[in-house]
Amino acid sequence: MSTKQTIAVIGASGNRGAAISKILAKGNNRLLLIANEKEKVENVAQDITNNTASAEVEVLECPTDASWEADLIILAVPYQAEKEIAEKIREVSNQKIVISLNNSYNSSQEALQNLLPNSKVVKATLEEIQSIIQKLSSTDKCNF
């Protein structure tokens, strides 16, 4: 059996954040869900636990705390929020992989990587996330 990964999903109440949270809940993952809209993210967490009995889901209010605890960080936030979130998680995301789901024309992997210099930043679509998670489960994270 593979080791359970702790994954922070920042922006879990939005469409992309909720969708990836529901997908990841079906795997061997512990999810830490964070969003500005507490009621919405609590509804996402409840939906996950209602539909996936084995899911381990926790709602947190602070992206810094969640990122500190997480093995992997997923940003499902609008482009305009990436810089603010990066500033909040910079010190606790060292040596961690940060996956951005933002596909905005303005958003670049390089710009986010500059904000998080000691992390490995990856831009991905919802469809690509599952293969990334599987790859991380089966390889040395340092060589990703």
Detailed description of the structure:
There is one protein chain. This protein is an alpha/beta fold. The chain has a single domain, classed as Rossmann fold, CATH 3.40.50.720. Helix content is 43%, strand content 20%. The chain contains six helices and six strands, in the order βαβαβαβαβαβα. A six-stranded parallel sheet has the order 3-2-1-4-5-6, sandwiched between helices. The longest helix is centred in the first third of the chain and has 14 residues, at 38-51.
Record keyword descriptors for this entry:
43% helix, globular, Rossmann fold, single chain, 6 helices, 144 residues, alpha/beta
Outline the secondary-structure elements:
Blueprint: E1 5-10, H1 15-24, E2 29-34, H2 38-51, E3 56-60, H3 63-69, E4 72-75, H4 79-89, E5 97-100, H5 109-115, E6 120-123, H6 126-138
Q: How many helix segments?
A: 6
Strand runs, count: 6
* Shape assignment: globular
Order of helices and strands: EHEHEHEHEHEH
CATH homologous superfamily?
NAD(P)-binding Rossmann-like Domain
Any idea how many domains?
1
Percent range for β-strand residues = 15-25%
Which structural class should the secondary elements be placed in?
alpha/beta
Over the alpha carbons, how many angstroms does the gyration radius reach? 14 Å
Average pLDDT, to the nearest integer? 87
Can you tell me the CATH architecture? 3-Layer(aba) Sandwich
- Biggest sheet descriptor: 6 strands, parallel
Strand order of the largest sheet: 3-2-1-4-5-6
CATH topology: Rossmann fold
Question: How far is the first residue's CA from the last residue's CA?
Answer: 21 Å
* Helical amount: 40-55%
